[in-house]
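Case 430 in the screening queue. Each case pairs one protein sequence with one candidate compound; here the compound is 4AD. For every case the pipeline is the same: read the inputs, emit a complex structure as tokens, and attach any notable structural observations.

Predict complex for case 430.
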Amino acid sequence: MKTTIKEAKNKIGQEVTIGAWLANKRSSGKIAFLQLRDGTGFMQGVVVKAEVDEETFQLAKSITQESSLYVTGEITEDQRSDLGYEMQVKKIEVIHDAHDYPITPKNHGTEFLMDHRHLWLRSKKQHAVMKIRNEIIRATYEFFNNNGFTKIDPPILTASAPEGTSELFHTKYFDEDAFLSQSGQLYMEAAAMAHGKVFSFGPTFRAEKSKTRRHLIEFWMIEPEMAFTTHQESLEVQEAYVAFIVKSVLENCKIELKALGRDTSKLEKVQTPFPRISYDDAIKFLHEEGFNDIEWGDDFGAPHETAIANHYDLPVFIINYPTKIKPFYMQPNPENEETVLCADLIAPEGYGEIIGGSERINDIDLLEERIEAHHLDAESYQYYLDLRKYGSVPHSGFGLGLERTVAWISGVEHVRETSPFPRLLNRLYP
Ligand code: 4AD
Ligand code: MG
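Case 430 output:
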């Protein structure tokens, strides 16, 4: 009977066949331990010399790393492994012999691994990170579908810039100029006026010459947008959503979190409500902590965000940033017009901003003023202004960066390991 490593947990005591690759191997004169992987998981195959024919035992000792195989044997319980079971191998059929697989169990440098990303994806930790990414995506759809949101897909090729014009990827659209989307937000606002509560999930692009552990050139964003919703109400959706994905990963990715050596006690603490601190108080806090390099009106850098996050050891909302350091579309804060109704959600453990969100300007005159003040091409925002001409309503939304969220929940240092094929400064291959 053909099965998979994951399904084999329901096959204890039965003889099964699994299509697998050889990830690693150890052997002595009497026994060989095959580390098998098949995409669904990693499992040990035990080949005992006394229990198989000589040919099979010699084969087990000689198979090379990443050769593809059909292995047949009985699934038995093994309490010592993370998986809880292993295979007593009876028969091995080699499908393809792999020679000189470049990624060996020894340590390789990051650039070497990134050059071999197409193969590195097979490694146990990389496999675990992608499974966690997949779980976050699955939980995202579950959360928004259960809460009355409709998924709407904004375009990738666009004529307008939501987040400022300095980081746009330019391309030609026949005879016109076009840009790769930095954010689907403006289109999601139009969608919210048609469907009430909407969310998108898609790739976004930033031609940003940043080389940090938090920056990708191409990343995936989840962008919910809600009509008749204040910024305050939006914060409640954001924290419920983030707590939900953390809980989903804790429940459904136990083996992966273990493979990554993640300290899950930090994730167990992620419960709503999340702490909120105003930008003003954050500046005061940083001054008290001895950060004299920052003053009111400056944007926070990574060390500032990390200091604030460490203080709470939980995701924390920094709210009401100064108007001048935020995009054109944010609603002024009625309590202090120098600031806007917005928040960044900062992840714990130094992972930085994972969400940027705000209430959107719903008054057409103010919006026109802001578009002009930001030197944006008014022509390409006519559709956006229409939303304020025909039944304008208070509305709010946010964008969660998938890769930063995966990095935080997985506990991997750098976002490059959270994207299957990351686009980085100076890296377009593979
Ligand atoms: O704060 P940002 O730029 O916000 C927006 O684009 C809004 N239009 C979203 C909205 O309200 N609909 O980006 C949102 C999130 C950030 O918090 C971060 O998690 C992620 O996107 N992000 C990046 N992730 C990886 N690499 C980059 N270069 C990123 N830039 C932003
Ligand atoms: Mg931001």
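Case 430 observations:
- The chain has a mean pLDDT of 97.
- DSSP finds 13 helices and 19 strands in the chain.
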